[in-house]
Amino acid sequence: MTAWLVLAKTGSKRISEGYDDNPATHYSWDNTVNNHAKLRVGDVIALWDSTELLGLSVIEDIEGGQAEKETPYCLKCGKADVAERKKKLPRFVC
Question: Which terminus of the chain, N or C, has less C-beta within 10 A?
């Protein structure tokens, strides 16, 4: 058994961040997350939102799958680590 600190953050300014997490029922991640393949059934997770501890749980089940994930990128430099601007153009800036 291993214990993990996992980030469940809503409202991130980075466009490529964010999952359909619901701390009361489930936590989601993909292969862009560090150590994504190391979590196992029976491991303990502490859900953290970068400000406070949301809860502790034990992984009961892991559902795998395939999906496309939209990752916008900066048209100038090509980086995917971009933030969306609400009023200024270009809409995305690295």
Answer: N
Indicate the pTM of the whole model: 0.65
Cα–Cα–Cα angle for 14, 36, 85, rounded to 5 degrees: 5
Q: How many C-beta atoms surround the C-beta of residue 80 within 10 A?
A: 14
Residue 47 to residues 65, 75, 85: CA-CA distances in angstroms? 22, 34, 29
Which pairs from 62-68 meet CB under 8 Å and 24+ separation?
Answer: 67/30
pLDDT at 17 over 70: no
Segment 45-83, tens digit of pLDDT: 998 888 899 889 999 999 888 877 776 677 777 777 677
* Residue length of the chain: 94
DSSP codes, 57-75: EE----------------T
